[in-house]
Amino acid sequence: MNRSQKKQQTREKILTAAITLFREKGFEEATVQEITKEAKVAKGTFFNYFPTKESIMETLAENRLHQIDEYMAAYGLYRLNFLSKLRAYFSFFLGDYHLNPALTRQVWQHMTEKNSMLSDIWIELLKEGEKQGEIKSDTDITIWADVINSHFYYCLAMSTDDTRELFLDRLMLLLYTSLKAILTKRGRQTMKKLVILGGGYGGLRLLQRLLPNDLPEDVEIVLVDKLPYHCMKTEYYALAAGTESDHEVRVPFPTHKRLKLHFGTIEQVDLKNQVVRMKGEDPLSYDYLVVGLGSEDNYHGVPGAAEHTYSIQSMESTRRTYEVLNNLPANSIVSIIGAGLSGVEIASELRESRSDLHIKLFDRGETILPMFPKRLSNYVQNWFETHEVEVISNSNITEVTEEGLYNHEEFIKSDAIIWTAGIQPNKVVREMDTEKDKKGRVILTPHHHLPDNENVFVVGDCASLPHAPSAQLAEGQADQIAMVLKKRWNGEVLPDKLPTIKLKGVLGSLGKKHGFGVMGDTALTGRVARLLKSGVLWMYKHHSGV
């Protein structure tokens, strides 16, 4: 190791030690002496790298600032509109929010007070917006960069939000109220607008089927999502268990001159006025709408479940789950409520990731995975027994508390509880003024649109279909929606009935070396099933572009 490498290694050791102590004790309470002790360096060595404890805060923020260009380029985010791009920047800067909200806010407060780098970034964004015709040409860019900075500082100082998403919504609402004075009001465009809500499996497949060559010249697509990339939700269990990084479950959205990415939070689908209402933004009008907003946890009215369990239903909630599981001391008890595919996969992955934990998997039924052939179900049960994962059958979780859960009337102490016991459509969909089934999913025609509106389609977990929700089903449905749209645009007659969506099968993992599944009529177990799943995932990740 040369001298330069050794210096960099020492610097990183000090930074890592400081971050650990800041998160444990808080910035004010952690001392330089404690940091040097944790980093195993002399006190004088600390001051060779950082003149003050406060300078560490600035370094943490600067590290993020230096990575922003690479992040924006990797996911094609420079094509976002001005407000979406602004939110993307804030979202990246606050990437560690889930680890310690208070510390993250403090880091960026310090940055906005002591450094001009943020103002320089806002100036460049405003200039680009002006160049694109989104910002009025007579705008004093420098003043408005200061406005953005001051609003950011205000929210950092005043916020008590637990999640980055809530913080961003509050910040963007404040910014929009001020910035709309300099935003241009464009006239109604002659292009027809296909708005896709949600960049999940259905939304991404629809883009793949319409781009690059099957979109009429008079139609543009607007994809709306909270995140500026597609997430492989079926792999969130590995992210939560700590065996995959979030980078491994991301896929960039495709690039096309008539595809616009809109990064923000949806508040309401207003079917009557044909607009999507966004938090902190003007409503987004549409000519054609595809709703693919996915699902969220369904707690079935169990007291305390929403407050005291962790989730793998969103990228942000999964990151929080990972952080909790990663920080558990040895011999902690982890209870997983729900022994469906998600519960089985996270239990097995966590067993391989943390062999020191006591893992309990609560199954409402008598047999684990009863929807699969008996041989396969027995294989999974035996795997759990061999790997000391306790499966508790015939369970009925009646209450969840901070200290544990009640199974029937028995209290079971738990250090962390993960909920995988059911889903429901996204809240925005549940509030849509249209007919739904008993599970809150939207009832559709055989062509996947609303019975009283042929221009509004619903895809994925929010659609009432004869099969259980899955990524495969959403993709099959998206294929058919794309076909319906293309025939309509070409003036062709639609068939009265579309073909039945054929599902190829289901594959699940038991850690990194074993798996299970059904392909056609064939039940698969062991390494072959796991290799098949790995191959499918590799193909999906590397062939999802357009």
Beta strand % = 15-25%
Give the rounded overall mean pLDDT.
92
CATH homologous superfamily label of the largest domain: FAD/NAD(P)-binding domain
Main sheet characteristics: 6 strands, mixed
Contiguous low-pLDDT stretches (5 residues minimum) are: none
CATH class of the largest domain: Alpha Beta
Range of helix content? 40-55%
Q: According to CATH, what is the topology of the largest domain?
A: FAD/NAD(P)-binding domain
Class based on secondary structure composition and strand pairing:
alpha/beta
Number of domains: 3
Radius of gyration based on Cα positions:
25 Å
- The number of helices is 18
Can you name the CATH architecture of the largest domain? 3-Layer(bba) Sandwich
Task: Give me the count of strands.
Answer: 23
Protein name: Transcriptional regulator, TetR family
Organism: Alteribacillus iranensis
Cofactor: FAD
InterPro entries: DNA-bd_HTH_TetR-type_CS, FAD/NAD-bd_sf, FAD/NAD-binding_dom, Homeodomain-like_sf, HTH_TetR, NADH-Q_oxidoreductase, Tet_transcr_reg_TetR-rel_C_sf
Task: Annotate the secondary structure layout.
Blueprint: H1 3-25, H2 32-39, H3 43-49, H4 54-74, H5 82-93, H6 101-114, H7 117-131, H8 141-158, H9 164-179, E1 192-197, H10 201-210, E2 219-225, E3 230-231, H11 236-241, E4 250-251, E5 259-263, E6 266-270, E7 275-278, E8 284-285, E9 288-291, E10 295-297, H12 305-308, H13 315-326, E11 333-337, H14 341-353, E12 358-362, H15 374-386, E13 389-392, E14 397-400, E15 404-407, E16 410-413, E17 416-419, E18 423-425, H16 427-430, E19 449-450, E20 453-458, H17 471-489, E21 505-510, E22 514-519, E23 522-526, H18 527-542
Parallel strand pairs: 1-2, 1-9, 2-5, 9-20, 11-12, 11-17, 12-13
Antiparallel strand pairs: 3-4, 6-7, 7-8, 10-18, 14-15, 15-16, 19-20, 21-22, 22-23
Family: Belongs to the NADH dehydrogenase family.
Keywords: DNA-binding, FAD, Flavoprotein, Oxidoreductase
Domain HTH tetR-type: 8-68
